[in-house]
């Protein structure tokens, strides 16, 4: 296919016959995701610059892979006859962020400035650098301001805006429903108020396969606003803000990875939840809590990596420290 580079490999002596590969497509970096079909070995995913030759260790075929470029899909590029498909992302950025007023009087909190770039730009740049795309950005409050940033800085990139007209009456579960068409394969789901170093994305993508995998971090103590989790090994048992503090193991950082099966389960669970009388008031993580009961949700610790959630003015210094380190 025109504009598609080659993929080459070199077998190593490590178990499961791990090989090293490099790839380019259209002169752009590609994030490869591979998994042994027998699930006996895990994958590793790296965003890498075209032609730089950075390695992507992977199991020998049969495998699947992911390519970030929209419109190419099955025809885009293949590895020994196995098609490479996109790893999509959905970012939930419909809220105003009233706890950040007056900074959000005329803009959503995803457009708060952090060292010369908006929070949203830091997110998008990290995802695109990891080869993730297309990216669907769900907006609501001051959507026009977000659309202007996308038009100015991401024209021609695989980033699209989807407006949620119900942002004033529904919580973020409604934004997931608005973006439900994106849940048709592998994808990442992110809160629009979290900044992180690129290695966070890479670690989540490199984690072993699971229908749903939730990125978590651990710290010495947890406050009322933390989205707390209880785990059994890597398996998620419970997630919520009101879990007993003495039972809490970690907190969610607001980033999840879905495989195609997990995305289907999540999409169906969102539909069911919104049919309930109080469904509009649900967080999407309430649905994840229910799916955890079915054994569908695993976790991925990002301990040691930098990230910050921006909810209050006091959070801005920590967020700026994260992006300054990049």
Task: Describe the structure in your own words.
The structure is a single chain. The protein is an alpha/beta fold. The protein has helices at residues 73-76, 119-129, 143-153, 172-178, 198-206, 260-274, 284-293, 316-324, and strands spanning 4-11, 19-25, 65-66, 78-79, 82-85, 88-93, 113-114, 117-118, 135-139, 159-163, 187-191, 194-196, 212-217, 228-232, 235-240, 250-258, 297-301, 307-309. The strands form 5 sheets. Strands 6, 9, 10, 11, 13, 14, 15, 16 and 17 form a 9-stranded mixed beta sheet that branches. A hairpin with a 2-residue loop joins strand 4 and strand 5 (82-85). The longest helix is centred in the C-terminal third of the chain and has 15 residues, at 260-274. 45% of the residues are buried. Mean pLDDT is 77; it is low at 1-84.
The helicity comes to 10-25%
Low-confidence stretches: 1-84
The average pLDDT is 77
- At the third CATH level, what is the topology name of the largest domain? Spore Coat Polysaccharide Biosynthesis Protein SpsA, Chain A
Question: Could you describe the largest sheet, including whether it forms a barrel?
Answer: 9 strands, mixed
Bin the strand percentage.
Answer: 25-35%
Instruction: Provide the number of structural domains.
Output: 2
Name of the CATH superfamily of the largest domain: Spore Coat Polysaccharide Biosynthesis Protein SpsA, Chain A
Helices, by number, come to 8
The beta-strand count equals: 18
| CATH C-level of the largest domain | Alpha Beta
The radius of gyration over CA amounts to 19 Å
Order of helices and strands: EEEHEEEEEHEHEHEEHEEEEHHEEH
CATH-scheme architecture of the largest domain = Alpha-Beta Complex
The coarse overall form would be globular
Based on secondary structure, the structural category is: alpha/beta
Ends distance: 35 Å
